[in-house]
Amino acid sequence: MEAVREYRMEELADAAGITARTVRFYRERGLIPPPRREGRIAWYSDHHLARLRTIAGLLERGHTLNGIADLATAFDSGKDMSEVLGLAEIGEETPVRLSPEELADYFEGEVSAENLAAALDSGYLAVDGDQIVHISRRLLDVSAALVRKGVPLAAVLEAGRRARQHTDALAELFITVMETYVGDDSAEELRPLAKSVVEAELSMALDRRLRTGGTGRPGGA
User: Fold this and answer.
1) Could you give the angle at which helices 113-122 and 153-181 cross, rounded to 10 degrees?
2) What's the CA gap between 49 and 37, in Å, rounded?
3) pTM for this entry
4) Buried b (16+ CB within 10 A) or exposed e, 16-34
5) How far is CA 182 from CA 134, 171, 195, in A?
6) For FRET with 156, which of 20, 68, 113, 184 sits at 20 to 30 Å CA-CA?
7) What angle do CA 64, 66, 70 make, to 5 degrees?
8) Residue 217 carries which DSSP code?
9) 10-68 per-position pLDDT tens digit
10) From CA 178, how far away is CA 58, in angstroms rounded?
């Protein structure tokens, strides 16, 4: 395994292209975690260097230090990747690794501390070292497309939360039917059939809503 490099404050500042005074300021503001102390010597790691580079990238994208501090708090209190690895291993969705700067670019200024915390709480995002992991490439791309169309990210996250309640119920329904009539061993084989039923029913439901003005009533009244 590759050894983790450690730096004194001046070395860290040189590697990040900033001054030691700025490093100290960021540490006091909670933008970077405390160093490891060995007697009177403070040792910083590659994790601190990555965080400093992230801060520089977010500042370049117009984020304020207060906003970055809020994001850092949400990021540091987020779920570790080990908590969601089970979903990635058994599911069909492909996880995506992103730096905080890449995530900010994906959602065009919509990555607030509140939205980040909501995504972490819902399990859409997880923390793995200095990276953020989104559990589904498809959901990430769809969410970003909706934001580009003008839908606030907070509304996208709320819609996803509500959709999950219904999809969890649908999954339970189909699993129960499969286990009752075909047994546990064949349930996984029937998974594509269950997905096809849900996709077809959702497609027809969207057709009905669009024909009635989106409200389920003629003319949208």
Assistant:
1) 0
2) 17
3) 0.72
4) bebeeeebeebbeeebbee
5) 34, 16, 17
6) 68
7) 115
8) S
9) 999 999 999 999 999 999 988 898 999 999 899 999 889 988 988 888 888 778 888 88
10) 49
Phi then psi for residue 83, to 5 deg, are: -75, -20
What is the rounded distance in angstroms from the CA atom of residue 31 to the CA atom of residue 66?
Answer: 9
Calpha distance 198→210 (Å, rounded)? 18
Q: Bridge partners of 45?
A: 6
| Cβ partners under 8 Å of residue 139, min gap 6 | 93, 124, 160
Return the closest-CA partner of residue 45 out of 1, 6, 3, 2: 6
Give the number of other CB atoms < 10 A from CB of residue 160.
18
Find all residues with CB under 8 Å of 153, minimum gap 6, and list them: 107, 110, 111, 112, 115, 143, 147
- For the chain, the 3-state helix, strand and coil shares in percent, each to the nearest 5, are 65, 10, 25
